[in-house]
Amino acid sequence: MNANALLPRILAAVTVAAGAAVLLGPLPLSVAGGLLLGFVLPGMALTGVLFRGRELTAVERTTLAPALSMAALVVSGLAVHVCGLALDRLSWTVATAGVTLLALIVPAVLPRGVPAGAPAAEEEPRPVGERLSRIQLAPPDVAVITEARTVVMSVVPPEDEEHVAAEEKARRGRLVRQLLPLVLVMAVLGGASWLSFGTSRETFETTVTALSAAPSGPVDSAGNRTVAVSASGLVRADGPYTLAVTGPGGASVARRTISVTGDGSWSETLSLPAEQRLAVNLFRAGDATAYRTLYISAAE
Amino acid sequence: MLTAPDPRPDEPARRPAAPMTSIQQYEAPSEDTEPAGTPDDAAEAEPMAEQRAAEPAQTSEDAQARPAQPRVRPGAPAGDDKAAADIQTTSGVPKKPIPGEGKEDPQPEVKGETAESRPEVEGETTDPEATAVIALPEDENAGSDPEKTAVITVPSPEETMVIELPAAPAGNPGEDTVVIRTPSPDETAVILNRPPDETVVLPAGTVAPPTEVVTALIPVVPGRKDGKRTEAAAPPDPGRKPKPARPRREPLDLGHAPAVLTISALGVLMVALAYAGGRVDTGNAPFAYWAGQVVVFTPVVVRLLSRRMAGAAESFVLVMGLALNQYLLKWMYSPDQFRFPDELQHWLATTIIVQSGELFQPNPALPPAVHFPGLAEMGAAVTSMTGLPVTAAGVIVAGVAHLVFVAVLFSAVLRASNSPAVAGVCCATYATALHYLFFNSMFLYQTAALPFFMLAIWATRRWRTEGGWPLLTLAVCCAALTTVSHHVTAFALVLTLTLLAVAELVVQKPRRWSALIMPAVAAAVVALWLLTVARDVVGYLEAPIEQVGRTISDLINGRDQAASTTAAVSVGQLVVQGTGLLGLFVLYVALVRDMIQRHDRDTWRWAAVVGGAIFFAGNGVRFLGQNGPEIAGRLSTFTYVPISILAAIALVRGVQIIPAKDAEGHRWRAAPPAIDVIAPGGWNLYSRVAAGSAMITLLMIGARAGGWPPLGSILPGPYLAGGFERSVDAYGVDAADWERRALGPGNRVGGDVTSVSLASTYGRQDPVREVGPLYYADEWGLDQDRMIADLAIQYLVVDRRLSEQLPEGEAYFENDPNAGSITRPLTAAQISKFDSLTEVDRLYDNGTVRVYRMGAQ
Description:
The structure holds two protein chains of two kinds. Chain A is 48% helix and 17% strand. Chain A is α+β, with helices and mostly antiparallel strands. Chain A has three domains: 3-109, no CATH class; 162-206; 210-296, Immunoglobulins (Immunoglobulin-like, Sandwich). By secondary structure, chain B is α/β, with parallel strands linked by helices. Helix content of chain B is 47%, strand content 6%. Chain B has a five-stranded mixed β-sheet, covered by helices on one side. Chain B has a four-stranded mixed β-sheet with strand order 1-4-6-7, with no helix packed on it. In chain B, strands 2-3-5 form a three-stranded mixed β-sheet, with no helix packed on it. Chain B is globular. The termini of chain B are far apart.
């Protein structure tokens, strides 16, 4: 079995494995499988279908795999939506794996005589605007040119195995020497990324102490309304906190002492007079001025 | 000696696949044109180090063997000489065609490589029976020089020339080359001269040891391996002294790319350190930032401009490595979360799909994005399949899309120019676009559309040159995917395809009207989507276009213009950007002059010339009102592609900015110089590489300074009012999270730029953006009450830091009435007036950000 016949089978096997990893595997496997199904496998398979028998450079092949995979994602999503199905892990996996397998099967089903997509005109690609050179030659000229274009070439005798092996070894060594700096590149980039991610997260992670209240509830028959008051980001070192609810003249309506426990959050639903505009103050231990303040207007 | 017929008659002839453009001719002698992955020939066996070491020596020998040519060029041809002027020669001397019958001078012109070795011609070629005898010099040098070239101009293809060549020198049979050139420069046949036994023997030393040869007679058939094509291809340059073929590299030879990328990666590390320093306000961080940017960028550019790249593989790896490094620079600014408002909007769009499992769900943060779900689909797919958070999936999707865009750009230019150097330099130049690391690589829907945009152009080009339904299908699909992904990019695609089609129709003869198929199909697809699905996008785009129109009208009528929200640009920044643009313009003009002089017929280059003109015109839009800079920047995303291609051609080809005088003293009316008149080495090359690298580096610095983030917040760090990414911190995010948890989605929430952005995304609220007058009012009155009622505002978010800092972006609010004229921060009274309103609740307070519930419900 040659490499051309083997590649689709390998792709199909990898596709099935990636699908299984996404649906059944742990996070690392599902990440690998998901990225393969998202950016690699559909594009590789589609490249084989669309460009069967057509010349592609290695750069173009490298480019087309993720490009067509992205296209497959967009089209798959639209198709799933049109079919009225939910876009979830199962549908995305089935869609991408299905596109890949379908693209692998189609070339095997199609006749292999004329490659699909062969150009109609038997002309080689050339830049637009370039004119084709045509020399009208008389038969004698053709004969002369044909003869003139006959060369005697020396056929290189087969080299001895030792020489070939040495060359192969040198080639491998050269490849390793070229790839080694790329390992260093990856290490440097990884280090830079880790540094940046770490410092960004570190500077962002600030403890935010917030006092909040939900909009007031309905007024009951006693003229009170319920207000759910919450505090978050309480710091143990600043505790215990004191919550004081005061009326318009500074009269105390309610008072709570809040001990910091667990994740530093506290919540309680208070029953407060509906006809007054109230101030809800949060004090840190030892503070005379309010650390956080809310205003609850009188209920209408 | 074993003589045998060709055992493989279908073996392709070793010649260029197609007549080459001038650029291709320039690049063709190098193995650079070899596609990556192409197996090398017998020269593979030579160690690469030896190959490289041998090349300069060879060049030096060439220089010694060839007498110095005076650096003058012939005068401009006139009359009958014009036809010959199109013939490009290394020496710069245009060949004269042999006159036909009735002409006075029947002598065919035969040129040797040097004056000393000029062959003699006897007889006339106007008479079919006559014989032209070319006597190659037989001096000592000539006998040992295997590269003598004689050029004969044939008066008519129907006429016959019999050429008698001297016996090949002993030891070097068949080394002399005779070139027969027909009147058209495109019609050239190269015939290796033969010893009297009519057999050309390749020097054994180039193939195998002379003592162990087994020889096979292989007729070389012109044309493809199937033999159906009979056109004789032109040699790269018949007047040029053939250079010994340089040994080819390995198929996966990356050349110096790994080493160069190592240096570039160190630049990334420097920028990462600068970012870390910026987060804690280190003084030297800006210096490390700019040094890092140059270290990331410039080594790659220098290597791309140098002439001895290993081939497409090295160029491609360099370009992709640079793109990756620069994307990392963008990502490292805010690696843990999206902070830019537009990225947050698309984060929400993706999150909605992940949570609801449906497309086209309302997105209050950016309503038009609902109908362009390409990016969100990709993000949702990756999130769903991998289990990663939406932010991580978004970073991956944006990164892959950005890299694919660069890769397709490289592929398209490589396909068009057949030059890895041009493709690489083009991508490096494009990396200096204002929005390259902004709208083009952030998690925005344009980022998702750009790969399809470029892929559509690539497929269209291949379809035009090769035909075949798969390429047309791919082009149409890519046009549709572009349309589904982003509106402006879809419009740009239609215009680009139209430009290419018109250029083809104008330049190419006979006209092929099928060129109009792709622009027509793309226009139909875009129109269909806008009329059936994305009907709201017209209104969305109408406002900025109207604003530009108003500004133009104001300029024409001399009316005062509205204040601009654009930050004031420093003189230094203007100088850097202006110098870079001037350099581009000079290259542009020089290349256009060169193309005109050469009678360039390449459709795509002329289309690029038009695109380049639009680029320079588009730079003027940035001065047109508040939206001018943004529109100019967005326009440059597309117009910077052609100008990058042209700049790359000019830099790689070494197009003369000030042409040398010709023999008649003409400078500007002179015939075009030989395309490779500048020797690829020595001071000339080094100065060209240095100047080109300096110009592109200057463009990069100008783009980073004038692009995004703005100079004032070019490093991450503590909160800045009106600073977009720099305004997003834990206080704002906590408030937005509380809005979502406590208030539920869909409330009408107003605030400053950042508060509204966070409320509409993390908070899932319905944003109200034009609330500036409420904050600027010193006292609350009826006007404010009316505004609250008119806008149905339910909540206002107030950040106390607005009263402590001037806005970084010249405005606190979107549609800020005081934009550009803010001289002092908001006052404490303006900020705290909401507390005194008896019908207003302050429901949230984290010491910095407060949320008020307005009385009008």
